[in-house]
Write a structure and sequence with these properties.
Number of strands: 3
Radius of gyration: 17 Å
Oligomer: single chain
CATH superfamily: NAD(P)-binding Rossmann-like Domain
Shape: globular
Strand content: 5-15%
Helix content: 55-70%
Strand order of the largest sheet: 1-2-3
Distance between the termini: 29 Å
CATH architecture: 3-Layer(aba) Sandwich
Number of domains: 1
CATH class: Alpha Beta
């Protein structure tokens, strides 16, 4: 529970706190845009990503509800769902206390090589265009777009197909 709360504090409650701090200022502007970063895992919920997915689904729900509440005001809300962007997120992430640190590091390095393929520059360009257009929702990367469609097409069954891919990926790690 301590690790779960720690992650929610960073990924969700920080978004809420920053919104609370800046919204009064933004409401006085002629036009403003709040941009909250969720994740592909705020659309799909893989096994072994419970806390992370919960935090990113929370960002998504908060952003969508806030957008509805701010309708008619000068403040827009964009929620961003990046897929596999080539960053250090996997290799620099905090390792769960119950995990073997060496196994976790090897797994993170493999995940980075296999799944984090989109360049940060391309991701940033997509995000900037979306903010300029005041888009409500941004899917960054082909993986995010494809998995979003899969989840919407088969919301109760998407995981059965993805599970095999995740299991194959883990088997290849070993």
């Amino acid at each position: 529970m301590e690790e779960f709360r720690w992650l929610l504090e960073i990924n969700f409650f920080a978004v809420v706190a920053l919104t609370d701090a800046f919204l009064p200022i933004l409401l006085r502007q002629e036009q403003a845009q709040i941009v909250n970063v969720s994740s592909l895992f705020g659309i799909i919920a893989p096994a072994e990503q419970t806390a992370y997915s919960a935090s990113k689904f929370a960002v998504r729900g908060f952003s969508e509800a806030l957008r509805h509440e701010l309708e008619g005001s000068p403040v827009g809300v964009t929620v961003v769902h990046p897929g596999g962007v080539r960053t250090a997120i996997a290799t620099s992430a905090r390792v769960a206390a119950a995990a073997d640190p060496e196994e976790a590091a090897a797994s993170a390095a493999k995940f980075t090589r296999r799944a984090l393929r989109l360049s940060p520059e391309k991701a940033a360009a997509t995000l900037v265009r979306a903010i300029e257009r005041r888009r409500k929702r941004v899917l960054i990367g082909t993986d995010a777009r494809v998995l979003d469609l899969l989840q919407r097409a088969a919301p109760e069954r998407y995981w059965s197909g993805l599970r095999r891919r995740f299991e194959r990926f883990r088997a290849e790690e070993g």
